[in-house]
Amino acid sequence: MGKSRILVVDDEKAILELLDYNLARDGYDVTCVATGEAALDAVRSEAPDLVLLDLMLPGIDGLEVCRQLRGEAGTGRIPIVMLTAKGEEADIVAGLELGADDYITKPFSPRVLLARIKAVLRRRASAAPDDTASLHMGDLTIDPGRHQVTVGKKSVSLTYTEFRILHFLARRPGWVFTRYQIVDGARGEDAAVTDRSVDVHVVSLRRKLGPCGKLIETVRGVGYRFKDS
Q1: Alpha-carbon gap, residue 120 to 118, rounded angstroms
Q2: Rounded Cα gap, residues 46 and 5, in angstroms
Q3: In the chain, what are the domain boundaries?
Q4: How close are the terminal C-alpha atoms of the chain, in Å?
Q5: Which has the least CB within 10 A, 81, 101, 156, 217?
Q6: Residue 177 in contact with residue 102, Cβ under 8 Å?
Q7: How many CB atoms are closer than 10 A to CB 143?
Q8: How far apart are the C-alpha atoms of 21 and 44, rounded to whole Å?
């Protein structure tokens, strides 16, 4: 297998040199750029395996770069790890809501950064779950083929969007998803979902699922996850 390609985006020359050195030494093929515009051009011309993205950039900032990449079909699935001196909770949540896979605050440990990058790449490389297989979690059964959900022996009537959100979360038990990621995962034909409406759909799902509604857990300040076991 070839080297994983990482695009590093930062306007500080010293940071670029540090990241270039450590990533290359760890076996990655590294490309460095210093502006948001250059980052967008680089990703669109030759999609990397991961983007390490500073938030505070001249011109187009990191949040806008993330927003544009997530909004395009050809780049929407590329892992993005945000690297930022803005360590306030609001800044971190804003990045995650836009679809970042992880964030690292400056100053950072190169060893920790490498470990986090490996974890993101490992998650993305793992085999995608079978979208057609039925899922069984205690009394809850989700059958994508029949578009059916049952709790015990009782059928539960869900809207198209509610079903897609439930199925999206249940396929990855234990994984935490931001509202943006849930919107992206549940989006389909006639599925009108916005990040703000995710909370409304989750409330409705919990009510309809009764005792099984507790399987959908709120992760404060981030989003939701489906309970693991």
Answers
A1: 6
A2: 10
A3: 5-125, 135-226
A4: 34
A5: 217
A6: no
A7: 15
A8: 24
42 class by beta-carbon count within 10 Å (0-12 exposed, 13-18 middle, 19+ buried): middle
Q: 5-125 has which fold?
A: Rossmann fold (3.40.50)
Architecture category of domain 135-226 in CATH: Orthogonal Bundle (1.10)
What is the spatial distance between Cα 209 and Cα 10, in angstroms, rounded to a whole number? Answer: 46
> How far is residue 86's CA from residue 89's CA, in Å, rounded to a whole number?
9
Instruction: Evaluate whether 41 touches 31 at the Cβ level (below 8 Å).
Output: no
Strand 176-178's sheet: what is its strand order?
A: 176-178, 223-226, 216-219
Measured CA distances, 78 to 99, 101, 131, 193, 216 (Å): 10, 9, 21, 22, 26
Q: With a cut of 60, say whether residue 127 has pLDDT above it.
A: no
**C-alpha to C-alpha distance for 134 and 148, rounded to whole angstroms:** 10
pLDDT surpasses 70 at 77:
yes
Average pLDDT, the chain: 86
pLDDT at 131 over 90: no
User: Considering the entire predicted model, what is its pTM?
Assistant: 0.58
